[in-house]
């Protein structure tokens, strides 16, 4: 159903806003479409069949398309963090006032149903200049915008985007004032998790480090080793779990205490925590084996530590990480895993092994198989 003929919005002053307008002009894939409605009330929206879903401000789902329609609103800072705002939504709030509360000019553009652009803050000009620039000095009222700037750069740096110097100054101000520290860990992870899935995730961490926010939000990463970690993170190949292993690669050089502190500090999901722990174990294996890589005992220890026998799906991505640093070791480990995994408990049960003796014999034969294979190379 087209907007022009949609009876649910007929007669309403409606505008497409935000990311859909921005990305369409960049030639970027357009995801969800968000709309702003000017000059009406919640009661009128419900009368037209819209379903109210906004808890903190009036947002409604279209009765047919289920896209979000928000009433035009303004915000006023009342407390710390990104939630400390007083929301004002009423029929007298203009479109320009609604757009003024947004973070960057490229996100403060709107489009009429006819396709005509409404751009009071120069978003199209900044798109053409490949520039992330704040809409107003109110940027400093919301510390979440520091993370959003970093995430947008992770998405668009490959297109030549950079952050305007005056916006960088405000980001440094937010970090130095301590306001960034009021962000809840779950919100930090939401932005970080999204950034890990972007084209250039290194831009996210570099940007946070440059403005001082990384030292506040993820202290274990804010060290001179960051540049090397980001370079290693870029080695992770495309795949379903790319974001997971990028995070793992980022912290694989840390000790156990720092890994725990980092993941606790951002409330990382369990899968991401575990991936970083496994990557760290694999890095330590490389360091331990050193020049005597054909060490069957050490290889068995690694397979046991990553629980390869019960979680075989872990082996391939860890071998891929190792291969970036030591291809020969990765080949040895792949051979060892392939041969050792063929020795199954069922065969030993048939030979009469039971209880602890079964486990001991299984481990012995697996290690012996690995040793014999490596000696023939």
What does this protein look like?
The chain has 377 residues and is α+β, with helices and mostly antiparallel strands. Among the domains are: 1-124, Beta Polymerase, domain 2 (2-Layer Sandwich), CATH 3.30.460.10; 283-375, no CATH class. It has 18 helices and 11 strands. The strands form 3 sheets. A 7-stranded mixed sheet has the order 3-4-5-2-1-8-9. Strands 6-7 form a two-stranded antiparallel ribbon. A two-stranded parallel ribbon has the order 10-11. A hairpin with a 6-residue loop joins strand 4 (59-61) and strand 5 (68-71). Helix 7 packs across helix 11 (242-251), helix 8 (201-211) packs antiparallel against helix 10 (226-233) and helix 12 packs antiparallel against helix 13 (270-289). The longest helix has 21 residues, at 355-375. The N and C termini lie far apart (67 Å). Mean pLDDT is 92; it is low at 1-5. Residues 14-133 form the Poly A polymerase head domain. This is CCA-adding enzyme. Residues 160-221 form the tRNA nucleotidyltransferase/poly(A) polymerase RNA and SrmB- binding domain.
């Amino acid at each position: 159903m087209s907007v022009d003929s949609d009876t649910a919005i007929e007669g309403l002053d409606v505008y497409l806003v935000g990311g859909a307008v921005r990305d369409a002009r960049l030639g970027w894939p357009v995801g969800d479409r968000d709309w702003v409605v000017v000059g009406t009330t919640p009661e009128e929206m419900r009368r037209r069949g819209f379903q109210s879903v906004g808890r903190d401000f009036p947002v409604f789902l279209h009765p047919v398309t289920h896209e979000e329609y928000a009433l035009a609103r303004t915000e006023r800072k009342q407390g710390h963090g990104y939630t400390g705002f007083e929301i004002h939504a009423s029929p007298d709030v203009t479109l320009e006032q609604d757009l003024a509360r947004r973070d960057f000019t490229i996100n403060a553009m709107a489009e009429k149903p006819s396709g005509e652009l409404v751009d009071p803050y120069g978003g199209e000009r900044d798109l053409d200049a490949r520039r992330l620039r704040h809409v107003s000095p109110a940027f400093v009222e919301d510390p979440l915008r520091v993370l959003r700037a970093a995430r947008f750069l992770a998405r668009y740096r490959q297109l030549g985007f950079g952050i305007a110097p005056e916006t960088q100054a405000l980001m440094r101000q937010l970090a130095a004032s301590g306001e960034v520290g009021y962000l809840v860990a779950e919100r930090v992870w939401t932005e970080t998790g999204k950034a890990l899935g972007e084209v250039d995730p290194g831009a996210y961490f570099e940007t946070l480090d440059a403005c001082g926010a990384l030292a506040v939000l993820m202290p274990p990463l804010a060290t001179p080793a960051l540049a090397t970690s980001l370079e290693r993170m870029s080695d992770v190949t495309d795949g379903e779990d790319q974001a997971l292993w990028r995070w793992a690669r980022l912290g694989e050089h840390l000790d156990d205490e720092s890994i725990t502190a980092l993941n606790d500090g951002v409330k990382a999901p369990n899968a991401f925590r575990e991936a970083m722990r496994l990557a760290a174990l694999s890095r330590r294996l490389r360091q331990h084996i050193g020049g005597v890589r054909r060490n069957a005992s050490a290889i068995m220890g690694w397979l046991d530590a990553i629980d390869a026998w019960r979680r075989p799906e872990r082996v391939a991505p860890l071998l891929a990480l190792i291969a970036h640093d030591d291809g020969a070791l990765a080949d040895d480990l792949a051979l060892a895993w392939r041969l050792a995994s063929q020795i199954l408990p069922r065969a030993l049960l048939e030979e009469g092994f039971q209880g602890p003796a079964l486990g001991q014999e299984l481990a012995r034969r697996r290690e012996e198989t690995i040793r014999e294979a490596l000696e023939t190379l």
